[in-house]
Write a structure and sequence with these properties.
Elements (H helix, E strand, L loop, with lengths): L2 H17 L3 H5 L2 E9 L2 E5 L2 H17 L2 E5 L2 E6 L4 E13 L4 E14 L2 E11 L9
Length: about 140
């Protein structure tokens, strides 16, 4: 299996775990340590326990907004040679149980391949169409 196929498989597992609210499996998709860049905060994540705590707070906020599931609009994967890759998930829709949108975001990932396979080293949440602002 080539790097792009392996990374797309990681995203499939990640989205399935995210939508199941399985924080253990979501956390397993990340390196230790990792970095999460969220609107208004840069969060260094030391280990799996810290990531599980962060995910718990994210899911609690989503649940308060009647969260149902997340869908990824488009996924672009760019292996960068060896054990590094980047990926952009654009048009990521977080939906309520009634089908209305909570938000639409884009996300940028830096991935690293280790003995555990491909994992996210950095995840950055961005406003949808962020590059349309001329910040490319």
């Amino acid at each position: 299996m080539n790097a792009e196929t392996e990374i797309r498989s990681l995203f499939d597992r990640y989205l399935t775990a995210w939508n199941a609210r399985d924080v253990e499996r979501v956390a397993g998709c990340y390196c230790e340590p990792s970095l999460c860049i969220l609107p208004g905060a840069v969060v260094p994540v030391e280990d799996k326990a810290a990531l599980i705590a962060l995910l718990g707070s994210i899911f609690a906020a989503l649940e308060n907004d009647n969260f149902s599931h997340t869908e990824i609009g488009k996924l672009e994967v760019c292996p960068r040679g060896g054990s590094i890759a980047t990926a952009d998930a654009t048009g990521v829709r977080r939906l309520r149980k009634d089908g209305t949108e909570i938000e639409v975001i884009d996300a940028h990932y830096v991935l690293r391949r280790s003995e555990n396979g491909w994992q996210f080293a950095t995840a950055a949440t961005l406003p949808h169409h962020w590059s349309d602002d001329g910040d490319e």
